[in-house]
Amino acid sequence: MIEQAIGRLLILAPAALAAFLLSLILIVALRPWLVRRALARPNARSSHRVPTPQGGGIAVVIATFTVAWAAIALWPSVAQNHSALLLTVTAAAALLTAVGAIDDMRPMPEAPRLLLQFIAVGAVIATLPGDLRAMPQLPWTIERVCLFFGMVWLVNLVNFMDGIDWMTVAEVVPIASALTLLGLCGTIGLLPALFASALLGAMAGFAPFNKPVARLFLGDAGSLPIGLLLGWLLLALAGAGHLAAALILPLYYLADTTVTLARRIMRREPFWQAHRTHFYQRATDNGFTVPGIVMRVLAVNLALAALALISVTAHNPLVSLAALAGGGAIVAWLLATFARRRR
Q1: Which of 34, 91, 206, 281 is most buried, taking the most CB atoms under 10 A from its CB?
Q2: Which candidate, 257, 251, 213, 166, places its Cα nearest to that of 52?
Q3: Facing residues of 166 across strands?
């Protein structure tokens, strides 16, 4: 076990470092072009006040996949028996990056944008190993349908939640770190662990440019494929028999977006239209500063990561349920905090 962990560490740690450096280099190279072509101008729904370039996620996605593929070229056994899935995930992420980049420069109609998301997610779900069961209590076909719509929702909710500086960093870094640790322990396969470590490094390279007040936004070119990649990684965790941990890790994003959507539907609001009524957006209107919001989100996500790790290591269904309930309580506290006006 220790030898396996050391062997994986010698692959995952350099991957994270290489992705960090490559992400930095690509952002510096791309930013002047993004300033000219993909400038996000403030509007009624914006949380920023000055025009800011978006599309920095292009560098994050390129760095993540370039480093992961380079590592696979050096250690081909990492992708053994998963070449079709690897190619599909890469192609699907490239498609969503292109869709997002176009949308960053010139907004796309909602229908073709959603259709292309369905194609990307459907391809990944169709290529999953037949014996991967995240919810074995359900019939195989029903489970696959649930996974399809769940991943489409995750792709969109990462996009919805990327509305203030450092928000996606505060979400992705704890999740990717936890998945990398689980990869070191052998809980998930080396291939998803490799992508988690590369994503961790690439997001860390993006973070200095996005810290409040941001000089660069992730954009749809980053949030859409990152949502897809997170969905695949969490599926790998759920397929390893740890569904509770796979739900705990993204629980804050899941709760904020799902509760907000339900509230808008009950109020008969046009829920399909862009808005700024997510809890983290309401917090800015209630007197919270952007750094104060993202630091709270980061603290909650670190707590969720710890609960997910406890759930995995305990090997006890009752402990997993308790961890999930504890995570729900922490997230509920954060949502309630954001919903109250600060004195």
Answers
A1: 206
A2: 213
A3: none
